[in-house]
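Private note to self, pasted from the team thread so I don't lose it. Backbone tokens:
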């Protein structure tokens, strides 16, 4: 264990668990990003890309915003639930993923 690691461990052990939790929450909230506002034209383009990918069984790369953080979801469109405003995907490892239309920030066809 080098000296840097020891310093972190030493100070963490002197802090109360509540303080450690609050510090972690503060760090997470510091790196949160605001949700981008999409115009109706972008949403239309996303829907067109989703429908085309589903018809041709093409892989998609989706960027989603959730709780202040962006995440990448790759997979194939299994079903578009217009009533529930959700997208049902099958990821590359065969798992089911559900993405809300309101969380989408970018939709691209993968190669």
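Design output:
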């Amino acid at each position: 264990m080098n000296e840097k690691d020891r310093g972190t461990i030493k100070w963490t052990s002197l802090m109360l668990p509540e303080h450690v939790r609050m510090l972690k929450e503060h760090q997470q909230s510091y790196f949160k990003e605001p949700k981008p506002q999409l115009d109706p034209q972008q949403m239309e383009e996303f829907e067109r890309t989703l429908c085309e990918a589903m018809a041709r069984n093409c892989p998609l790369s989706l960027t989603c915003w959730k709780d202040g953080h962006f995440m990448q979801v790759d997979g194939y469109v299994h079903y578009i639930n217009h009533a529930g405003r959700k997208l049902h995907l099958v990821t590359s490892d065969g798992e089911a993923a559900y993405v809300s239309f309101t969380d989408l920030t970018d939709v691209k066809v993968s190669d």
